Amino acid sequence: xxxxxxxxxxxxxxxxxxxxxxxxxxxxxxxxxxxxxxxxxxxxxxxxxxxxxxxxxxxxxxxxxxxxxxxxxxxxxxxxxxxxxxxxxxxxxxxxxxxxxxxxxxxxxxxxxxxxxxxxxxxxxxxxxxxxxxxxxxxxxxxxxxxxxxxxxxxxxxxxxx
Length: 162
What we know:
Layout lengths: L6 H58 L5 H28 L4 H21 L9 H29 L2
Helix pairs in contact: 1-2, 2-3, 3-4
């Protein structure tokens, strides 16, 4: 009887190891959550700065009379869409930190992509490319990306019955 191993002692060592691993994993998860929230705060700050900049751009364009220039208006729209992208990225980060369901996160990413492509299409100028063929390839790529994202969004919404 004295030489037999104690079954309680054998069972406690793996449990203590599991407990230590769980505790360390919990600390790491807390750290990741803090970093995610810091990223969200940075995006919120960027958004606030961007809104102030957009307001200043509009005031400046109105004062100089440049507001009637289509390029100036496109620049303002470009800035506004960039702000929407920042908001969507912020919402995605918040959804991650709150452990939202995957569909919500995917939908936010699709919205971000659609806004980004629309922004590119609005500021698209053929003169920005070396040749007409390069501009055509870029236009086709943007169009295919936008159509693909829209189809994915439509499929996702129908899957939820929205």
